[in-house]
């Protein structure tokens, strides 16, 4: 494929503009929406809207999980999960000078927070910046100190009285970044896990009259312990569960060993074998691989040393269940420049769709 510049129309072979084009506007809307764990409201409304014409029924539970169900020809049920929440912060203190201190909602690398722009969702949405002491005035002790989230302070450019009127303890804070195309990739905040939420919604639109009943689940609070998936594992109680999430793509110059890359951009959908929260069911990941091979879908296998996904949330809460997972390789995870190749996104949609359409309920996943 010939690369195009960021200002040129998308090439016809590009997944956004090919024979089966992806909805670029929806992907951008999802990734730019704000929704930290427990407060996924804005994302939830998009999901409900998109489910309206794609599934037979939609329900929302007390935690905020949204489940769109396509009724199948049998009682056999498959759950597909992708989480709505993104990492963010909650205001824990406003000091006498009007600077805001926060508590993390999800796992941050404090090194990437310096000088970031944020939005504080107070009485109104307020632009702020995470302050950073200029290198000219750093002491030796400050230069050697490790960054901590607890040291983060947000400057709202207002005096203390104005901040007091607009910001309260418990207000939410999200990182501020737009989504844009970059060659064959898209980059922005919250691709974790909105790019997989997008893939799930696209698959739901493509599937019609399946043999199995399919519950497409947009889950909450994944970033703080897979909490929404644990609840749905009991409430939905599927016979089989497939989770969608991003995974590490460390295919960049700083990584010495190729094995440490985990996955590579442009090599296709990643079929998960394990992460630190789950070992996927062998018969499930083998069938995912067979479906990819028989449909000529680009794919790779993923062994993730650290990190967990909703896959684990469905494996045991309602009793032992077969589980599998499809991941989208993504560079620079948990930053505002998360980057994924749209060809891998398209491969993930194709694989998920083909797998679900071929799920009859007669495959034996017992060991």
UniProtKB/TrEMBL annotation:
Domain of life per record:
Archaea
Q: What positions constitute the catalytic site?
A: 222
> Single GO molecular-function term?
metal ion binding
Q: Which residues bind Zn(2+) 1?
A: 83, 192, 245
Free-text comment on the cofactor: Binds 2 divalent metal cations per subunit.
Q: Where is this region: Disordered?
A: 1-21
Coiled coil regions in record: none
Acidic residues bias (residue ranges) = 1-10
Stored Pfam families: Peptidase_M42 (PF05343)
Q: Which residues bind Zn(2+) 2?
A: 192, 223, 334
**Keywords of this protein's UniProt record, alphabetized?**
Aminopeptidase, Hydrolase, Metal-binding, Protease
Please state which protein family the record places this protein in: Belongs to the peptidase M42 family.
Q: What is the name of this protein?
A: M42 family metallopeptidase
Q: Which organism is it from?
A: Halorubrum glutamatedens
């Amino acid at each position: 494929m010939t690369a195009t510049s960021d200002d040129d129309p998308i090439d016809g072979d590009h997944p956004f503009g090919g024979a089966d084009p992806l909805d670029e506007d929806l992907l951008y809307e999802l990734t730019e929406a704000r929704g930290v764990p427990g407060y996924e409201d804005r994302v939830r409304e998009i999901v409900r809207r998109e489910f309206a014409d794609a599934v037979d029924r939609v329900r929302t539970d007390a935690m905020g999980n949204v489940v769109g169900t396509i009724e199948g020809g049998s009682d056999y049920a498959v759950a597909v999960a992708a989480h709505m929440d993104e990492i963010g912060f909650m205001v824990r203190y406003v000091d006498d000078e009007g600077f805001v201190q926060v508590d993390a909602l999800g796992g941050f690398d404090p090194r990437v927070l310096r000088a970031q722009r944020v939005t504080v969702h107070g009485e109104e949405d307020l632009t702020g910046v995470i302050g950073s002491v200029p290198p000219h005035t750093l002491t030796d002790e400050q230069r050697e100190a490790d960054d901590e989230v607890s040291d983060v302070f947000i400057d709202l450019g207002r005096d203390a009285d104005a901040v007091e009127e607009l910001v309260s303890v418990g207000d939410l804070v999200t990182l501020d970044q737009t989504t844009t195309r970059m060659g064959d990739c898209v980059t922005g905040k919250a691709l974790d896990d909105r790019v997989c939420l997008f893939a799930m919604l696209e698959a739901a639109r493509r599937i019609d009259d399946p043999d199995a009943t399919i519950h497409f689940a947009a889950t909450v609070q994944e970033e703080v312990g897979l909490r929404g998936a644990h609840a749905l594992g009991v409430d939905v109680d599927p016979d089989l569960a497939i989770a969608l999430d991003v995974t590490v793509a460390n295919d960049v110059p700083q990584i010495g060993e190729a094995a440490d890359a985990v996955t590579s951009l442009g090599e296709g959908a990643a079929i998960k074998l394990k992460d630190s929260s789950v070992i996927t069911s062998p018969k499930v990941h083998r069938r995912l691989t067979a479906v990819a091979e028989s449909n000529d879908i680009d794919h790779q296998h993923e062994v993730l040393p650290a990190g967990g996904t909703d896959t684990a949330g469905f494996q045991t809460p309602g009793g032992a269940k077969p589980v599998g997972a499809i991941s989208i390789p993504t560079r620079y995870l948990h930053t505002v420049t998360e980057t994924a190749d749209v060809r891998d996104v398209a491969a993930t949609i194709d694989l998920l769709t083909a797998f679900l359409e071929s799920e009859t309920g007669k495959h034996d996943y017992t060991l």
